[in-house]
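Entry type: protein chain
Record version: 2
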Amino acid sequence: MLYLINFFFGVIPETLLFGCRWLFIISIIIFAFRKKNLTIWIFVALIVGACLGYDFPTFSGKLDILSKIFLKLIKTIIAPLIFATLVHGIAGHSDLKQVGRMGWKSLVYFEVVTTFALFIGLMAINITQAGVGTKKIDIVHEKLPEAASQSWEDIILHIFPENIAKSVAEGQVLQIVIFSIIFGIALIMVSENKRTFMVNFTDSLADTMFKFTNIIMYFAPFGVLGAMAYTIAHMGLDALIPLIKLLLTLYGALIVFVLLVFFPIALLIKMPIKRFIKEIKDVAFLAFSTASSEAALPKAMIAMERLGVPRKVIAFVMPTGYTFNLDGTTLYLSLASVFVAQATGMHMSLTHQLVMILVLIITSKGVAGVPRASLVILMGTANSFNLEEWPILMILGIDTLMDMARTTINVIGNCLASAVIAKWEGEFDPDGAEKRLLEEDRMHNT
């Protein structure tokens, strides 16, 4: 109420607003202590981090160490979790045909959904015309990350591991997936007595890594708080103001994408919507607040298994989707690339736009692991189509806010993809999973 009064009349002293703001913070922290719920704690951490970044920018500028610690801990889980779940899924069932089926079904699904994302992004930016009339702003302190140009041979070679330790160290998820698939196939080929030990080991390793994830998640609110405080402290409102329309266009387009694509797909596979939202809300909060798909992956795998998706399907579809099924990023790229053209006053026909977006979709597969990869792709596209680069540097001012939204959609999209492939394979059983959870709760209470 005070903020509304101040917005319209400007009569509330800043000291009073500051005091009320932090009284509210103290009250929601007390509320979170009473509830003892991770989702509530993450939401509270978002608010506290935003207020810290706004009121104490100098101090908050150093809090990114909390988010870095959390992300480092999460990254320790990714490789062993993918290896254990994939190898056990393949060798534990000895069904190579199913692995092949899941492979082509996943690629078909990924291509269809990302194509929808592409067109929704194009429609949104052409409707809002967010880039038209943008005034050039010199942002001399911003610098884009550099990435070496890659040929199509380099992109293909990048998929395959040359050294599994190097792949793990660099966080190359797709290379770890390829290694794990081949390892699982090789394990099927050895004798039963030699295979049993490794199958049991990977099963135990997978369960242990899921428990490992549960322990690390206790630090998640601190990671979220640090990431949000650092973002607000460094965002720079001067760079944000001329790009509000672009930001709202992206968020609006992502909401439309969820309603027109994700929701009908969920209904088609008979996904229990309320349970799906309940299970992935923590995952979505993590993805949004950290802007990191890796941070949300272990928790997402647990959530989908609780929803009735077999672990072997999750282990194959989700890591693969992190390379090929980036719905939010695809939508963002189509939207942002046309924004650059609009900002520079370049008229692009629909055919020209489609050609540019197709180039973007292809080149986006070759920059995995590059910091701010989307901006690197946009810079390369600008050079290829003779566009000026200054709008991309402007986008850099709000890239974190945009990345939070597109990462959330990427993660939710891959959660849904695992359920779609499980349904396609005839192995999606949400009712059975719910019964098992109720039985586990009953046993735990007993």
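Comment: The longest helix spans residues 96-128.
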